[in-house]
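Entry type: protein chain
Record version: 2
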Amino acid sequence: MAKTNSGKPAGHWLRTLRPLSWWLLLVLALFGIRTHQRLMEQTRLDFTVALAGQPVEAAAMLDRKPFLSGQQISLGWHTLTISQPKAEPFTTSFFAWYSRHDLGRINLRRSVGTLSVQASPSAAIIFITGPEFSAVLSNSVGTNLTVPTDSYAVTAGYPHWSQSQNVTVFDSQPATCVFSPQLGALHLTCNRDGATYQLQSASGQNVGDGNLPDTLTGLPTGSYQLTASYHNHQVQNSARGSGQNQ
């Protein structure tokens, strides 16, 4: 049996040092675990989100799970996705190691869509109004516009008729506003020279007045009340615009 310089068998020292070796390994393992926990506590992801240079609220998903800036992350590859109702989706991949990761400011791109406005016959004026975009069209049959995704109010105005529509433009989904009023002309005559008239709609709104004879164009089809005046005499009659000269 081999002996050491002290005269004791080598196996004796191995049996003596084995518990010390296990204890040392245990200490190293615990130290490694504690160091890992401490470093993982510092392994976080930070970022801010902006749209058109201004901070905005947005929904973030890290590896398809909801995520908030400043939360702890695991080691390895990750995919961060950010969505915001008025912006194009943003996606980036990165590798995380022990440390705090700061992606800085993430500038989203404004999402846009197509707004189609159609007017038949052509409208005297068309107003397009939204939070970030507006336009005015004169004597127009309409147009196709690329605009920021949002809600818009579109109004078409004719000499005796107007209508407003609300429309929402979504990303990659064209929105359409169509104005197609049924308009006609009303020809007014009288067998007395110097007679005047006043024309009102069925709701009592004044449509036109002046001297007879006269022709009113661009009238919505429907019933009208005509009052003709000659000196001190008045005559009331009903008239109807039907898209044809009357």
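Comment: Helices lie at 10-42.
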